[in-house]
Structures are given as C-alpha cells and as structure tokens.
C-alpha cells in the first residue's frame, strides 16, 4: 500500500464531494426558477490493480445527472402568456444569435415588437396558422419555424361576404303591405354600412324583397343592390328562391375609397304564417379594431383577440421531444440542446401523441426539493471532512516515515 496512494484517494473523495456540493448549490439557487430541472452527482468507484498482500487504493469518479423528465408542480398566474406543459415535450425558443433551443421555462412576456420572450431572453417559436388548417411540420428539424408575434396584425377589419335572414312575414296582411328591417355590413376598410331590407306583399303567397343602400352624402343617394320575388307554398314555406340571393357590389368611388363587396344572403329560414312580422338576421365581417389580448389554447393555438370581440387564430406553438430527455445538454438560460446521447429532436404539437397539453396562465415550478438538498449538503460536508482526515492521516504517516532517517 502506498501512502501517496492513500493521500490521492482522500483528494479524490474531497473532489467528488465538492462536485456534489456544486450541484446542491445550483439546485438551491434555482429552487424558484420556472421550469428548472435539478441535477445530482452520482458516484462510481475507481479500482487500481493490487497484488497479494499489497492493496493499491483507487478513488471515486463522479457523473452529473439531470432530472429533466421529472415534471414539477404548477403555479397559476393571471398572465395568459405564462405557459406550462402538462406532460412531455419542450417549447422551442430562439436565442439572440438565432439558434433554436428547447426549454420548459414558459414565463413569456409580450415585448415591444410583439414577440414573446421568457425571463432569460429567449423568444418563443411556432408556425403561422389559419383556422382549421395545421401547418406542415418538419418532423426532424427546426425549419419553417418563425417568431410568434402577437401584434403583427395591428388593427384589423374583415369585410362582409355573406349573411342570413330569418323570421316570419304575416300571411293575413293585405296586398301592398310593406315593412322594413336593417342590417349592418362592413366594407373593405371596416366601415359599418347600413343595408335596408324592404318586404312588400305583391300577391297571395308572394312578396318582393328589395335590398337598398343609402350613402352618407349630401344629399344622400339610395342604391338598389337586389330585388327578389319571394314565393311561399300553402303551408307558408319558402319555395323560391331556393339559393341565397346575391347583392351587387358597390365600387370604391361611391364609398370614399372603400368597397362594399357583393353579399350572399340566405333566405331559407323565412316563413309566411299567420303571425306578426318578425325578422332577424346577421351579416358576417368585422369593423376595424385594435388588439386587446392573447388567448392560447391547450393544443397551442395562439389567437389574437381584438377589442370588437373578434378572435383570429394566428400561430400554433411548436413543441419538441427527444428519446432520452435526461441526456440533453443543459445550457445557460435554462435551455437545452441535443446531445449524442439524447437522440434526435422530433417535432410535434401539444395534445398529440408524445406531447403534453399547454396550460395558459400557469408556470411549471422547479422540481428541486429544498429539504432533500439540505440533507444532501450535510451528507457531503460530513463525507468531505472524513476524506480530509484520510488525507491528513496519510500526510502524518509520511512525516513519520521521513523522520525515521533522523
């Protein structure tokens, strides 16, 4: 047995416990960091060749392991852009250098330029999205991703294209009876335009419907957009027209630069019965409005909600996973990158197989247990002291050996 070997073994033990204390320190420091995954130090023995009657002490090796697939608890907030993943998967975020990373830290805030960044300065990525039309994913790469921008649409207006009129025309009224109702349609610039629908009884079971538009000029000018004959059978059911009527488009010259497009108006819900005049209806489209807030669904669809109540799905949050999450490479900013042992990155959407749901207004807490870390700290301190005693004893014995010469 070598006294130098004994001292080296003691140093090996002290270094191992110092590494363990380092992971404990990191864990305690990040106990309040959203989405942080704790690390731990694992030990393995180093055995040196020995002969009969002579033992060569070895040492100890350390390996750091990460509990990345160990989900933390959730804390709920009042911000719709605070996001947590309930289940497997990672958000994809871009750093200032444009490189894409994985993270579970979903404390995103809307920036001045409309992007969503978490507290470490990483920007949330996704795919442009239209209602009921999922974008195509590059399964094994980050191509096609773009920064999610919740103010990119600015103010918005949706011109009217179709409408519905329902209700009853009184069957007992005399020929020549006339009644009107109005509906609002929106032009190409989001201005509300009033349409007047006039019903006149022209014969038994027959009515004439005129759709007129009156501009706001001086003097006002009324334009007829459509005139249609409505016919009903003996039971008061509409028999013609069988298809929606189409109004005439009004050119921009008549509307101060805007345009009111042609409208398809469905009349199939009209009846002629022995009851009072009662007409309801609706025309699609939205007036000009600014962004109010952001809504994010559990499957990751980001919708921009405008102040007029219109909700427009704009992006879908991209998610990623790997075969061995615990072997991802941790980097500064609570993000991860692919390593040789983690397996390749596979892309997907929240709610699909292999990916959890997204919780809006929630954050995933760190999975650090303070009590466990403090216990580990005490154990490491005791073990470090014991290893230092081994080194000290070997040093004292070496002094005895040196002094034998005197």
Radius of gyration using CA atoms only: 37 Å
- What is the count of helical runs? 2
Number of strands: 30
So what's the overall shape? rod-shaped
Structural class: alpha+beta
Portion of residues in helices?
A: 10-25%
Oligomer: single chain
Please tell me about this protein's structure.
This protein is of the alpha+beta class and 406 residues long. Helix content is 15%, strand content 39%. It contains two helices and 30 strands. The protein has helices at 3-29, 370-403, and strands at 39-46, 59-66, 74-76, 83-86, 90-94, 100-103, 109-110, 116-117, 123-128, 146-147, 156-158, 162-170, 178-186, 192-203, 206-214, 222-232, 238-240, 245-246, 264-273, 278-283, 286-289, 291-296, 301-306, 311-317, 319-321, 329-331, 335-337, 346-348, 357-360, 362-364. Strands 5, 6, 9, 10, 22, 23, 24, 25 and 28 form a nine-stranded antiparallel β-sheet that branches. Strands 13-14-15-16-17 form a five-stranded antiparallel β-sheet, with no helix packed on it. Strand 5 and strand 6 (100-103) form a beta hairpin. Helix 1 (3-29) runs antiparallel to helix 2. The chain is rod-shaped, with a radius of gyration of 37 Å. The two termini are 24 Å apart. The mean pLDDT is 90. Its main location: other.
Structure, briefly:
The chain has 406 residues and is of the alpha+beta class.
Throw out a few tags for this protein.
single chain; about 400 residues; alpha+beta; nine-stranded antiparallel sheet; five-stranded antiparallel sheet; 2 helices; 30 strands; about 15% helix; about 40% strand
């Amino acid at each position: 047995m070598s006294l130098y070997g004994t001292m080296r073994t003691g140093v090996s033990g002290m270094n191992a416990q110092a590494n363990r204390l380092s992971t404990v320190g990191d864990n305690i420091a990040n106990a309040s960091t959203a989405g942080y995954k704790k690390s731990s130090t694992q030990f393995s023995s180093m055995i040196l060749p020995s002969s009969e009657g002579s033992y060569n002490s070895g040492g100890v090796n350390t390996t750091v392991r990460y509990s990345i697939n160990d989900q933390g608890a959730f804390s709920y907030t009042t911000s719709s852009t605070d996001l947590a993943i309930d289940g497997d998967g990672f958000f994809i975020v871009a750093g200032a250098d444009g490189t894409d990373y994985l993270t579970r830290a979903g404390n995103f805030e809307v920036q001045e330029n409309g992007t969503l960044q978490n507290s470490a300065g990483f920007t949330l990525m996704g795919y442009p999205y239209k209602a009921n039309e999922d974008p195509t994913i590059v399964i094994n790469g980050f191509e096609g991703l773009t920064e999610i921008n919740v103010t990119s649409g600015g103010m918005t207006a949706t011109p009217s294209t179709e409408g519905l009129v329902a209700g009853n025309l009184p069957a007992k009224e005399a020929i020549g009876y006339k009644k009107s109702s109005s509906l609002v349609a929106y032009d190409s610039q989001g201005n509300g335009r009033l349409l007047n629908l006039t019903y006149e009884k022209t014969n038994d079971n027959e009515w004439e419907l005129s759709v007129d538009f009156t501009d706001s000029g001086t003097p006002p000018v009324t334009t007829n957009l459509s005139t249609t004959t409505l016919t009903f059978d003996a039971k008061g059911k509409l028999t013609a027209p069988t298809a929606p009527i189409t109004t005439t488009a009004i050119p921009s010259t008549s509307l101060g630069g805007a345009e009111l497009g042609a409208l398809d108006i469905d009349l199939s819900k009209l009846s002629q019965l022995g009851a009072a005049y009662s007409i309801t209806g609706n025309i699609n489209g939205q007036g000009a409005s600014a962004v109010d807030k952001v809504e994010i669904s559990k499957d990751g669809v980001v919708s921009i909600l405008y102040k007029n109540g219109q909700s427009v799905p704009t992006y879908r949050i991209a998610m990623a996973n790997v075969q061995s999450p615990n072997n991802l490479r941790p980097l500064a900013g609570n993000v991860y990158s692919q390593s040789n042992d983690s397996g390749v990155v596979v892309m997907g959407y929240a709610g699909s197989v292999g990916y959890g749901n997204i919780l809006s207004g929630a954050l995933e807490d760190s999975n650090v247990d303070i009590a466990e870390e403090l216990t580990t700290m005490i154990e490491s301190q005791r073990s470090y002291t014991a290893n230092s005693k081994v080194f000290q004893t070997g040093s004292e014995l070496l002094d005895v050996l040196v002094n034998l010469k005197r």
